[in-house]
Write a structure and sequence with these properties.
- The structure holds two protein chains of two kinds.
- Chain A is of the alpha/beta class.
- Chain A is built from three helices and seven strands.
- In chain A, the strands form two sheets. In chain A, strands 1, 3, 5, 6 and 7 form a five-stranded mixed β-sheet that branches.
- Chain A is globular.
- Chain A starts with 12 loop residues before the first helix and ends with a strand.
- Chain B has a three-stranded parallel β-sheet, with helices on both faces.
- Chain B is globular, with a radius of gyration of 17 Å.
- The N and C termini of chain B lie close together (7 Å).
- The chains are: A alpha/beta, B mainly alpha.
- Chains A and B meet through helix 1, helix 2, helix 3 and strand 7 of A and helix 1, strand 1, helix 2, helix 3 and helix 4 of B.
Chain lengths: 172, 129
């Protein structure tokens, strides 16, 4: 049993972000915070369930500048409406439009932010009953109201359309 | 924002009858919002689904997320993945850490942020980052 270093604790992203933007001269952001949390038990075993994948990665847009490994934050590559694509293939999704750790994450392997290949293998192995025919891309928005009133209901509607029993959500 | 966005969506799906699990790296943001089930990988942002070019890590991360989905006894269940990014964990000291930035770094970042804001302003009707 080795002791851990003093700094080896969960990174306080909210505090870091608050301090950082204050130093840049911008006001504090109020992060989403709820007292209660909904909970729905699984209705059937996972091996008989249909799973929907939800990602915050963005479709590659060749006309929107550098979106490859090591690209700087690229606001032009952001998207503002929910998108859906087939879960049977592996799409070209990138993460240059969000604030990931650009020093320690090189963004060379899409499997670190999109577990679609692993999900397809899990279906093949019988671990999951099936994937919904589409996975969904969620726009990342500073406005919680837009997420709550527009994007979340849209994704729920699409999950229902596809007969999703459960959902896996993967932020970048 | 990614972690907050998916947390809000997970809450909405769950409230409407679809059980969810979030797999992510920013523990404080997800737990501050409050989600039903969360598999936390203590990795730099961008690696929610496992380590790069490490199929074993990616498979184990998904499997653990599925286990959390199946077995969480109540809302706000967080399970920490046993995987470690590296031994010294020095990466944790870097992300947006003012203590590691010079005034010149800050000035450059301010300019970059202003240009990002201008780009977003030109987008159809939304703000985001």
């Amino acid at each position: 049993m080795r002791p851990a270093a003093e700094h080896d604790v969960p990174v306080l992203y909210m505090q870091r972000t608050r301090d950082y933007y204050q130093a840049l001269g911008f006001g504090a952001y109020r992060w989403a915070h709820y007292a209660d949390t909904p909970f729905t038990p699984l209705a059937k075993p996972l091996a008989q369930s249909r799973l929907a994948l939800i990602t915050t990665a963005a479709p590659y847009q060749p006309d929107k500048g550098d979106q490859g490994p090591g690209a700087k934050y690229n606001a032009a590559a952001k998207f503002y409406k929910t998108f859906s694509e087939s879960s049977e293939t592996i799409p070209d999704l990138r993460i240059s439009h969000v604030g990931y750790d650009r020093k320690h994450t090189h963004a060379e392997d899409p499997n670190t932010w999109l577990p679609l290949k692993q999900l397809q293998l899990a279906v093949k192995a019988g671990r999951i009953g099936a994937l919904t025919p589409r996975f969904h891309g969620a726009p990342t928005n500073r406005s919680q109201r837009v997420t709550l009133e527009t994007d979340a209901p849209e994704i729920l509607a699409r999950c229902r359309e596809d007969g999703a029993d459960v959902a896996l959500l993967v932020p970048t | 924002m990614c972690h907050q966005t998916v947390s809000l969506i997970a809450r909405h799906l769950e409230a409407n009858g679809i059980p969810t699990v979030v797999m992510g790296c920013a523990r404080d943001i997800v737990e501050h919002a409050g989600v039903p089930r969360f598999l936390w990988s203590d990795f730099p942002l961008g690696n929610s689904a496992g380590k790069p070019f490490d199929v074993e890590s990616q498979a184990a991360t998904l499997e653990l997320a599925l286990r959390v989905l199946e077995t969480a006894p109540a809302a706000r269940t967080t399970v920490q993945s046993p995987q470690r990014w590296n031994d010294d964990a020095q990466w944790k000291l870097d992300y947006n850490n003012l203590e590691k930035m010079t005034p010149a770094d800050l000035e450059e970042r301010k300019k970059e942020f202003e240009s990002v804001k201008a780009t977003i302003k030109d987008m159809p009707g939304r703000t985001g980052a």
